[in-house]
Amino acid sequence: MPHPCPGWGSGILQACGACEAGSILAPGLTPDHLHYCLRDWALYIFIFTVSGPGISAVATTLVFMSEHGCPTCGRVFESRRGLGVHHSHAHDEHLPNRTCTACGDDFYSEYDKKYCSEECHDESVSYTGSDNPNYRDAKEESPCEICGTSFEYYPSEKPGQFCSACVESESWRTPLDIDGENNPRWNGGKVALSCDECGAQIERHPSQITGEVTLCSRECHASWLSDAFTGDGHPNWEGGGVGPYGKGWNRVRKRALERDDHECVLCGTTAEELGRNPDVHHIVPVRAFVETPVLTERDAHTLDNVVSLCPSCHRRAEFGQVSREELRWRAGIAASGRTAHVCGSKTVASPSSSAL
User: Fold this and answer.
1) For the CA atoms of the chain, what is the radius of gyration?
2) At 279, which helix (H) or strand (E)?
3) What is the spatial distance between Cα 256 and Cα 168, in angstroms, rounded to a whole number?
4) Which residue stretches of the chain are H helix?
5) Could you tell me the pTM of the whole model?
């Protein structure tokens, strides 16, 4: 450390005037002047006056750092930084490096901080009135637009219109008019139309006119569905039936009911229980005969190709849940894979069960 006195480089070893320890003293200076004390590197502060030929009076204060001892283990360090690093690593605790402005307690902080806690901060710093950083010269007064009473409000919030009492009790919100043309979704209003089923005059919004037809009621909708989704209008249409069964059907149907005693050959349900005659089912479908070039639907109407079934068993048979062999056995029909039919001058076999 440089010395403030001139000629310090030729200083000589002298005794410290404060502690009598060996020290370096500049030539021409008495022991009353400032010098370095060599004993234990202790801290000494001297305020002195330098006088002599060609030397002006100077007041100087010098501080010399002493050794720093660890308060936990006693180890000595030359600098406070070294002590702090040692204490945080060896003892897992930071030494205080700051003093709280409010309470005066020492505390540790990695950054510049004036207060040791939020409590000290809140006690020292006020945010009320003009101390608030958002302070804008307090409140303003304005008359209420409903009752005329003068009230205070903060101009930073919004212009004052209604007092707190009217806000809570009066109807100060004006309902929006969204009827007719004032509606942001207005596109012209309703359109006059005719029901495609019954012809009645109806009105619909343009957004409701989306389908192929316009119907006025559920009844008209049901009626339209019955017509539009029948036959080839149904989405599951696959060609349909073969039309009327033709000649011979009524006769063979009557004979099948008589043969089966007007009962279902599978479950035994009678005509009296059904409230009508059972259905008469073709074991080999009529379409199989129609699709055969040399046969017609009339060739399907033979007594050995029909059985009496209730509606429930009829559905099971149509969906293949009952075999044709079982139907023939239940009806007492002799098992036969093929039935001969006379067609003109030829005798042909009816479609067999294995072919369908």
Assistant:
1) 58
2) strand 279-282
3) 86
4) 80-90, 118-124, 164-169, 218-228, 249-259, 271-274, 286-290, 311-318, 324-331
5) 0.33
Percent of the chain with pLDDT strictly greater than 70: 70
Average pLDDT (313-337) is 86
Q: How many other C-beta atoms can be found within 10 angstroms of the C-beta atom of residue 58?
A: 12
Could you give the C-alpha distances from 256 to 181, 276, 279, 305, 307, in angstroms and in order?
71, 15, 10, 9, 6
Give the H/E segment covering residue 151: strand 150-153
Residues 313 and 258: beta-carbon distance below 8 Å = no
For residue range 187-200, what is the model confidence (pLDDT) as tens digits?
A: 888 889 999 889 99
Q: How far is CA 261 from CA 36, 219, 222, 301, 326, in A?
A: 139, 41, 39, 19, 18
Provide the pLDDT confidence category of residue 148 given band limits of 50, 70 and 90.
confident
Q: To which residue do tokens 């957004």 refer?
A: 207
Under a CB-based contact definition with an 8 Å cutoff, are residues 22 and 40 in contact? no
Handedness of CA 194, 200, 206, 207 (dihedral sign): negative
